[in-house]
């Protein structure tokens, strides 16, 4: 796996070398890459701006000697992980609870590159768990409305017995979905409910997926229309 990871990180470094404002995502794969990123930037004296998608990523960048910022006019590319992804360039994110910031960074990126192990690949959006960030204020009423409107079951995320709090002071609902036949319509219905701040459903801006296992790396490119 070590050689594969080195090849993977070299692939990501190539992406970095062609851009100046880069979103750095969340998750174990991205965290593992950050020290290699720091070394690559230092050795090549690159003048890049790094935009973290979570407070944890910001800390990891700082530990590696890298500065981060959110004071930018644009983001060229965001490199991020995923809980699950499809060949249709749809990703489910937010397992770590950073979905609101991930969605903001992703939305304002020219493109998103998803990097994930191939066991996170799914054929269709069937029987998935979708994280949804909601306001803590009146969260029980918001939860009831989500369940009634969409006919789904949810669980309020907890950590060590306490309600999980996101970087922005909100709560996360893990929504159990039997099927999403129309992801865009489903997301619009969710976002129309007051108190729903963001969903972990990423349907836009992803134009490259890099998946890997112990033996190989595969790259899927989205065709430009």
From TrEMBL:
Instruction: Enumerate the NCBIfam families for this protein.
Output: rpiA
Isomerase among keywords: yes
Q: What is its EC number?
A: 5.3.1.6
Q: What is this protein called?
A: Ribose 5-phosphate isomerase A
Q: Name one GO cellular component term.
A: cytosol
Give the organism, scientific name.
Salinicoccus hispanicus
Q: Name one GO biological process term.
A: D-ribose metabolic process
List the Gene3D superfamilies hit by this protein, alphabetically.
Answer: 3.30.70.260, 3.40.50.1360
Keywords assigned: Isomerase
One MF annotation (Gene Ontology) recorded for this entry: ribose-5-phosphate isomerase activity
InterPro entries in the cross-refs: NagB/RpiA_transferase-like (IPR037171), Ribose5P_isomerase_type_A (IPR004788)
